[in-house]
Design brief:
By secondary structure, the protein is an alpha/beta fold. 43% of the residues lie in helices and 18% in strands.
Length: 399
């Protein structure tokens, strides 16, 4: 099995037939420059030491693994454990790659860092990292998400970033990506586009994966130390797929570990109101790379939907596409209703309010645990906390 996972990606940025650089020549050169700078900086002992110090003293790593005993007892069957990325500074896994990207932008002498955000977690984390290293930050966010994720909008403004509302199209994540990329194209020599997931042209799927892989390395070591064995099943939500690939990477060669990514089924796979890209999508190009995506007959991205703003993207990371094709990772779905049920159940049984994105993975764990044995273990990547979603959920459920 090891042969399938190394090296990934190849020198052209492909994971099997997915990824690459679907770009005009002048932009390809910019991406190649970023790749070269990245490969230089990760070999630097000074960079590695600075990042490691920030991860421990600033982010608060390692994040703990928590055994959700009451939830496990309530469901019967397997024991559910949570990798607590929600306890990181800024409240999610996004800070892991934002610190790396901000340091890389500084190393390259860039004057401004640009990004899109859906739920706002990437925006908050990037604004935080840019404030830390002293570089200007501009975040593009769909108007729908701005209204839905108001707490994160406030944080971004406090942190000093320029927030650009996007009202075109569905005014959600895909449109924010389009808007941010257009701004980036105005001066790619001096601007740095800090992509918020394992998507986009090479080298971003590789870079973001590498920065996020600390999640899985920690989790594998922590689980072995505490239980003397690996989990039977690991799971994480998948939109673009950064938190999932961060957890999955360390376990890919462990054949005893079943790996499951959970996509948003929204209002149902039999409706257009979902974002189940790997489940129902087909191969095509979007935002500078090739992947499974939800597209119309002309190859244009379809409008997508999820109750979780961070998951409503019509494409997905190219490595996830490859892992699906070779059947190393299974991709399941959870509906809005299952997500809300998991959100409330985890909150009231364990005192942990999850992000709506993460609640999709919790929902899958809740679904599968009763069919497993009490001596089996499920590890869920709890990728973010639900502060940003609390008012929205309370209003939706009339709490």
């Amino acid at each position: 099995m090891a042969q399938q996972f190394a090296p990934m990606p190849d020198e052209n940025g492909y994971f099997g037939e997915y990824g690459g650089q679907v770009l005009p020549p002048e932009l390809k050169q910019i991406m190649d420059d970023i790749d070269r700078a990245y490969e230089e900086i990760i070999r630097s002992e000074d960079f590695r030491q600075e990042l490691a110090l920030l991860q421990s003293d600033y982010t608060g790593r390692p994040s703990p693994i928590y055994h959700a005993r009451r939830l496990s007892e309530h469901l019967g069957g397997a024991q559910i454990h949570l990798k607590r990325e929600d306890l990181n500074h800024t409240g999610a896994h996004k800070i892991n790659h934002c610190l790396g990207e901000a340091l890389l932008a500084r190393y390259m002498g860039k004057t401004k860092v640009l990004a899109e955000t859906g739920a706002g977690q990437h925006g908050v984390a990037l604004a935080t990292a840019c404030a830390l290293v002293g570089i200007d930050c501009e975040i593009h966010m769909g108007q729908v998400d701005i209204e839905k994720e108001h707490p994160n909008v406030t944080k971004m403004k406090i942190l000093g970033c320029k927030l650009v509302p996007v009202t075109r199209g569905t005014a959600t994540l895909k449109d924010a990506v389009d808007s941010a990329f257009e701004e980036y194209l105005k001066d790619p020599q001096h601007f740095f586009y800090a992509i918020g997931s394992v998507v986009g042209p090479h080298p971003f799927p590789k870079m973001v994966r590498d920065f996020q892989s600390i999640v899985g390395r920690e989790a594998r070591e922590q689980f072995l130390e505490r239980h003397g064995q690996l989990p039977d099943l690991i799971t994480a939500c998948v939109g673009g797929g950064s938190n999932a690939i961060g957890l999955f990477t360390a376990f890919l060669e462990d054949e005893s570990v079943r790996i499951v990514g959970v996509e948003p089924a929204g209002l149902g796979l039999d409706t257009p109101q979902h974002a189940a890209t790997l489940t129902l999508g087909s191969k095509g190009a979007i935002h500078g790379f090739e992947c499974y995506n939800l597209q119309d007959d002309q190859g244009n991205p379809l409008p997508v939907y999820s109750i979780a703003s961070g998951l409503d993207y019509p494409g997905v990371g190219p490595q996830h596409c490859y892992l699906k094709d070779i059947q190393r990772v299974d991709y399941e779905t959870a509906t809005d209703q299952e997500c809300l049920d998991a959100f409330m159940t985890l909150s009231r049984m364990e005192g942990i309010i999850p992000a709506l994105e993460s609640a999709h993975a919790v929902a899958y764990a809740m679904r599968i645990a009763p069919a497993m044995q009490p001596d089996q273990h499920i590890l869920v990547n709890l990728s973010g906390r639900g502060d940003k979603d609390a008012d929205f959920v309370a209003e939706k459920l009339k709490l």
